[in-house]
């Protein structure tokens, strides 16, 4: 049912993921509402005593307050705590551009609630994945953002860096690399390229030296890493790492795992050409095959 409710009697959703409301976006929304009004169903909530607990529409509520509304029409529905949390999370993901940290916090809250109701973590993860339209792998990555240092989380929250970029930078060089990525506005693919160039350096001393320059922001380009490595390696003998046997053993394990995993794909080999990702998979497979052939020579 729909009800006209005094604005002062509308309470926020206790399970909302968004912690802060951007004033500029609220101002823009208020101007839009002033011109065209609120569309039906823009606000949804449930009764909480004599007041209404908002399920979603918090930015719109802030906007009508800015416009001086005394009353607002709200769609009143009967919702459980779980449904309140689920609908708020899904609506925010789809409409309001949460930061990656806010997404992670909302997802964690939902997972904890679902597990508290007896769902096992994999099942809870799949359920949230379907609701928000994100892969389970990316949800795990989002959740890992909450383990990062507070300064890194604040940078993501303030939109100075995306969660995906922060993760890639942090994996390469911790908080210092995140700061370097912010300073040089490095996207994910450039950080990945730098990491790849560093891994290819055969001399640990040279690799360590260039790694420090990358993490401190002195070098912020993969080609520059390669160029400087070439100069530093000139005339030097390649030092075989003491743990070479362990490196080879690790790769043997990885390849064994890949051989097992590829069986899952081969089941569908007759249909692979119809996949949108097939061309990229084929290219990567061919490149890997050439490199493995060199190792086997």
Key structural traits:
62% helix, five-stranded mixed beta sheet, 297 residues, alpha/beta, 13 helices
Write the layout of secondary structure elements.
Blueprint: E1 2-6, E2 10-11, H1 23-36, E3 44-48, E4 51-56, H2 58-66, E5 71-76, H3 81-95, H4 100-116, H5 121-132, H6 136-144, H7 150-157, H8 163-184, H9 188-199, H10 204-215, H11 222-233, H12 244-266, H13 278-296
Parallel strand pairs: 2-4, 3-5
Antiparallel strand pairs: 1-5, 3-4
Do you know the CATH architecture of one domain? Alpha-Beta Complex
Helix content: 55-70%
Strand content: 5-15%
**Major beta sheet summary:** 5 strands, mixed
Kindly report the CATH topology of one domain.
Conserved hypothetical protein from pyrococcus furiosus pfu- 392566-001, ParB domain
Strand order in space, largest sheet = 1-5-3-4-2
The residue-averaged pLDDT reads 87
Radius of gyration: 26 Å
Name of the CATH class of one domain? Alpha Beta
Shape: elongated
CATH superfamily of one domain: Conserved hypothetical protein from pyrococcus furiosus pfu- 392566-001, ParB domain
Q: Give helix and strand order, one letter per element, not per position.
A: EEHEEHEHHHHHHHHHHH
Structural class: alpha/beta
Distance between the termini: 74 Å
How many β-strands, per DSSP? 5
